[in-house]
Every structure is written in C-alpha cells, then in structure tokens.
Amino acid sequence: MITKERIGKIQFYFGILLLVATIIGSIFIIKYVYIGAVITGAGITGVWGEVSQGTNGTLIGISGHLVSNLMLQAQVIKTTMFLYGTCALVLIVLSIILILQGLVNQLKK
Questions:
Q1: Which phi and psi (to 5°) does residue 69 adopt?
Q2: Long-range interactions of 51-58: CB distance < 8 A, separation 24+
Q3: CB neighbours (10 Å) of residue 73?
Q4: Which pLDDT score, from 0 to 100, does residue 68 have?
Q5: Helix, strand, coil share of the chain (percent; to 5)
Q6: Whole-structure pTM value
Q7: What's the confidence (pLDDT) of residue 32?
Q8: What digits encode the pLDDT tens for the residues 55-98?
Q9: Smallest Cα–Cα separation from 89: which of 1, 26, 3?
Q10: C-alpha 1: how far from chain center
Q11: Is residue 31 helix, strand or coil?
Q12: Burial of 102 (C-beta count, 10 Å sphere; 0-12/13-18/19+)
C-alpha cells in the first residue's frame, strides 16, 4: 500500500534528481552552446572579411550583409538564453518545492 511516507520519499528523490539535472544541463548549455555561438560568430566575421577584400565592388554589400547577419544572430542568442534561463529558474523552484514537500510528507506525527 502506498503511504504518505513513501510518496514523500519519491518526491524528495525526484526533486533532488531534477535539481541536479537542471544544474548540469545549465552548465552544459552555457559552456557549449553559448560559447560555441560566440566563437562561430567570430569565425563568420573572419571569413566574410576575407571575401569582401577580394573585389572592390562588393565591399559595401558584403559588409552590410555581415553586420545585419551578426546583429540578427546576437538577438537570437540573447532571446534563447533568456528563455532558457527562465525555464531553468522554473525547474529549480519546482525541484525545491518537491524536495520540501517530500520532507514534509516523510515526517511522522
């Protein structure tokens, strides 16, 4: 039979698992995705700079395209990181609620 204490243990361990997974996932996302996007943007800048020096007529067109592309990518990255940060914060709060509720359910009166 399922008792209140057993449900409390499940909530407690699931809350800890969710908290650890959120923290590890956040570190992974920030380390690989965000930094990778910044390094990729720097690489794109170098490539387009080399292309724009090849001919005189396309210097302004390629530079304008490069600037608009980098501005758009920067906005996409900022929005993505804001949304991920918000979701991570919600998951951390949910895991803390589960941990505390699990501890309360494990108390014997």
A1: -65, -45
A2: none
A3: 15
A4: 76
A5: 90, 0, 10
A6: 0.71
A7: 78
A8: 555 555 566 667 777 778 778 888 888 898 899 999 999 999 99
A9: 26
A10: 41
A11: helix
A12: buried
pLDDT digits 0-9 by tens, 45-58: 555 555 555 555 55
Q: Coil, helix or strand for 2?
A: coil
* CA 70 to each of CA 8, 52, 67, 108: distance values in angstroms, whole numbers, following the listed order: 50, 15, 5, 59
The answer to whether residues 55 and 65 touch, using CB atoms and an 8 Å cutoff, is: no
> Cα torsion at 14, 18, 24, 26 (round to 10°)?
180
Q: What is the DSSP letter of 108?
A: -
Q: What is the largest distance, in Å, between two alpha-carbon atoms of the chain? A: 83
Instruction: Give backbone dihedrals phi and psi of 58, rounded to 5 degrees, phi first.
Output: -100, 5
